[in-house]
Amino acid sequence: MSSRSQATRQRLIVAARELLLEQGLAVSLSEVAERAGVTRMTLYRHFGPRRDLLLEVLLTEVTEVATACRQLLDDPAGSLTVRAHSAMTYLAVEFASAPLVTSILVGSTMTDLEELDPNGSVRNLITDTAGSFLDAAHAAGLLRGTIDSSVAWIGRQVLAMAYQLPGEHRDPQVIADEVARHFLPSILRITDAECEALIGHPPPASPSTPGGDVRERAAVADLN
Question: What would you report as the CA-atom Rg of the chain, rounded to the nearest whole angstrom?
């Protein structure tokens, strides 16, 4: 790709990001092309369908977050459970404070977001980010499901987290507690004692048998 072509592509990404911040997913290709100072045909030549451009902007936005998560997951200083808790808490806090994520999700539905990524780019990003961690967790007998089912489940949880958290300005400690109580026990085989160590106090009792809610969530996720 020539330097001129690269510059045009970057202008389109910047224009799309600006309009996503202003309008969310309602932004049109014509508006992006006009903002970037190019024709719609030029935009289509660089990115193809509208969803490919929007997905490119999203993936560009989360690359830095994914890199930080990978570093947390691969940190040899912590146990597998601690690494997972640190990475997922970091991701949740970032989603809660990301203006682009907030703008995209305002007025959008879960179906809108799922249709934005029909080729599984987000799933591939999760695999690249958490692959070595999941391999280690599987080898240690820590995963509730297979690596593939775990990647798929993480993708659904990340999507749900993105949909629920932005704009709430929630206390990071509250998010960290929720990750320890709900996310980790659903995907990893951890004990109440390990959960307590992560959040600093005992987890709430299950309304049924101890740990029953965890088993129910894992069953629904097909991770048992």
Answer: 20
Using CA atoms, how far apart are residues 93 and 106, in angstroms rounded to an integer?
18
175 lies in the same domain as 111: yes
Report the distance separating Cα 185 and Cα 73, nearest Å.
Answer: 17
Average the pLDDT over 25-49 and give the result.
90
60, burial (CB in 10 Å: exposed 0-12, middle 13-18, buried 19+): middle
Q: Does 43 share its domain with 94?
A: no
Residues 69 and 3 in one domain: no
Query: What value does the mean pLDDT take over residues 47-51?
Result: 85
What are the tens digits of pLDDT across the range 184-210? 888 999 888 888 888 875 544 433 333
CB 165 within 8 A of CB 95: yes
The pLDDT tens digits of the residues spanning 114-170 come to 677 777 777 788 889 999 999 999 999 999 999 988 888 887 776 666 555 444 556
